[in-house]
TrEMBL record:
Signal peptide: none
Keywords: Methyltransferase, Transferase
Chain ranges of the Methyltransferase FkbM domain: 109-203
Pfam assignment, any one: Methyltransf_21
InterPro entries: FkbM_mtfrase, SAM-dependent_MTases_sf
SUPFAM superfamilies for the chain: S-adenosyl-L-methionine-dependent methyltransferases
Source species, domain of life: Bacteria
Example of a GO biological process term: methylation
Record-given protein name: FkbM family methyltransferase
One MF annotation (Gene Ontology) recorded for this entry: methyltransferase activity
């Protein structure tokens, strides 16, 4: 069987294991295309990356190609994490630790996670749309995890949960945050709250590595290679 190859990542799954919408994106080769393009600018050699929202492991695999990186990745849905583990293994990445679970700010929290056919729509928001089932999830503390593993980059696509997390987490030692915003869930007021909270923590919005709802925030004042490339191209 010929499996889809997306952004150079082999996807060893078949059409029955994902929704028709996701299968179409995989076969067309445009699955998470914007995220893949931008995350290659956000993640640099030797970064220690915490990824929240593994999905199918495509972005994970792209980051794992960067020399010297190590990635800890979390997904709340065991079924999705199983598919992602298959993708990561098929592409030979040994620098990834994949965990089924959730990290939030502060003490552990219990909440419902709503599983939807389009896996990228699964979230903690019931009102986001029809769902197939729910999971009871207990979170871990993101700041404890970041400190324990000396994380310097956080990458997240967590369907709205970024709002509370980025407002409340301290993110000690983190230099860069790559986040996909979901303003349809918390509105432009929520976007403003996220931007203000990150600014208060010392992060600046980096327009050179951001596009649309996919944004990079940085605490680093170092001129990075991707910035020089863009300046020289003008």
């Amino acid at each position: 069987m010929a499996y889809p190859v997306v952004h150079g990542v082999t996807i060893p799954i078949d059409s029955q294991e994902v929704s028709p919408t996701i299968w179409a994106a995989l076969t067309k080769g445009d699955y998470e295309a914007r995220e893949v393009h931008l995350v290659t600018h956000a993640v640099q050699p030797n970064d220690r990356v915490l990824e929240l929202g593994t999905g199918l492991g495509v972005v994970t695999s792209i980051m794992a190609r960067v020399e010297g990186t190590y990635i800890w990745s979390f997904d709340a849905n065991p079924s999705t994490a199983h598919l992602a583990a298959r993708v990561i293994e098929a592409n030979g990445h040994e620098n990834v630790e994949l965990t089924t679970g959730v990290l939030t700010a502060g003490t552990p929290k219990r909440f419902k996670f709503y599983i939807r056919r389009d896996l990228w729509m699964s979230s903690v928001y019931e009102h986001q749309g029809p769902y197939e089932r729910t999971l009871d999830v207990i979170s871990g503390d993101i700041d404890q995890f970041v400190a324990k593993h000396a994380i310097n980059v956080v990458v997240m696509d967590i369907e709205g949960a970024e709002h509370g997390l980025l407002i409340d987490a301290a993110l000690p030692g983190v230099e860069r945050v790559f986040v996909e915003l979901h303003d349809h869930l918390y509105g432009l007021i929520g976007v403003r709250e996220i931007m203000a909270a990150l600014a208060a923590k010392g992060f600046a919005y980096d327009p050179r590595a951001s596009s649309g709802a996919c944004l990079v925030f940085t605490r680093s004042e170092v001129t990075r290679e991707y910035q020089l490339e863009q300046v020289n191209a003008r």
